[in-house]
Amino acid sequence: MKSSSSRCRESVDPPPWSVWNSKIMENSFRYWKKESPEFFLFQTLTRILTRMKCDHEQSLAEMIAECRLYYIDDTAEVKKIDAVENNYKSNDAIWHYTTDSFLFRLVGRAFRSEDFERIFIFRRYIIDLHSELDKLIKEQESLQKILRLYRGKKLCPTILQQLQDNIGALISMNGFLSTTLSRDTALEVFAGVGHNRNDCESVLFEFCIDETITRTYADISVISQYPEEEEVLFTIGSIWKINSVQKNNDLYWIVTLSSCSDVNLRIIQYFEQLADDSTFLMLGDVLRELGQHVKAEKFYYKMLDESTIKDETRVTLYYNIAMINVEQGRDSMALMHFQQAEKLISARVFDTEPLIPQPLYSSSTVPPRIHILNNMACLYQKNGDSENALLYFAKALNDERSERTKKATVCNNIGLLYYSKGDYETALQHLSQALELAQDHSSLAKFKQYYDAVKKHLLTKDISHGKKINSFT
After folding, report:
1. Which H or E element spans position 120?
2. Could you tell me the residue range of the domain that residue 211 belongs to?
3. What digits encode the pLDDT tens for the residues 243-283?
4. Pick from 248, 269, 290: which residue ends a domain?
5. What is the pLDDT of residues 203-251, one digit of tens each?
6. Mind giving me the DSSP string for 352-403?
7. Residue 111 falls within a domain, yes or no?
């Protein structure tokens, strides 16, 4: 909720597909008919962001530069940007949120755009706001839990219809959620009841909170520039279920929502699987999982510029970029990035074979050197360079730290290379070695299929020449 100085601007939500800078669409909500993988992954992205450790000066400079670019022709706002740049303190993040500031507006626009690259630009402030809010939540844990909160808005018919069409669905708020303890404040000040606009409807959101859930909100009125608004702020990405959308006496609409304790818990558990220090890598990995490969690649490149990145993380970054290059058919670029990864990993000793299974999307483990060398060999083979392919397959097999099952894959690939060259006997030797190394492994059936196919081909060839081959066990 925002002050009277901002009510004219903040009383009307942008339509769900309104445009920012003529290119960027905005969406205040994200609807989910069911809990899809994308639902959890999108929630994970923003949650990862809040726990990042990044260079303070670099991230602040990047955010300020974006603000200057947006307000380049607004002298008054530029002066405010100068003041924030010179005086910004992390512990003032909540206070900045309660003012009608350029920072509040641009962060809100970034979240509504659902463009993670744009959201990432404001990581300094988002991290600080989340951190300060989390401190306040902990301070208020002993206080009586709040069970009902309100939010008043002016909504265009399109958004209102979306809410009606999604009754029973889950809805996640893009960004932090601002509410108030006062129903009257929400209705009269922010929903604008009695101040009609032909193109908008007054809407009162009623948030019903399950008292058994972990507190994810804090009363920020003690810090707010406008304490009379009794503002309560939720942490990033709160999830609700739409219970009803009803008209009340032709004056305003009431949208009732209830907290989804079970969904929030599962997201927290899902998120905890990712718990390691490589939050930078996790962001790129989740973008890849969402199918946003171009953005993921840009993000990996951006991470390489971070001064805090360790060498083992750089190995993984180069490897991931190379894999994206492979998927997109850019073989020369892939080879270059595999070479960069291999150069780093050969210069130092990293723990590439963890002793315990790693959680989904964990980026704490450096890709094994055998993977890098094998993939380089496959690229050479794909492009008709059998000599270099065999050279790198041999290097992969000579990697002493590699597991038997990984070496089995390399042997299988060498066998297939010789098969493609018409050297069936040598192919069969390597395929047989792959079978020996892959005992009790999931790849065994596939390797056996290749072995049988080559053996059958060789048998046919030898019979036609009056030869008899030896049996293999």
Report:
1. helix 116-121
2. 4-269
3. 999 998 878 999 999 987 655 556 555 555 554 445 667 77
4. 269
5. 999 999 988 877 889 999 999 989 999 999 999 878 888 999 999 887 8
6. -S-SSPPPTT---SPPPHHHHHHHHHHHHHHTT-HHHHHHHHHHHHT-TTS-
7. yes
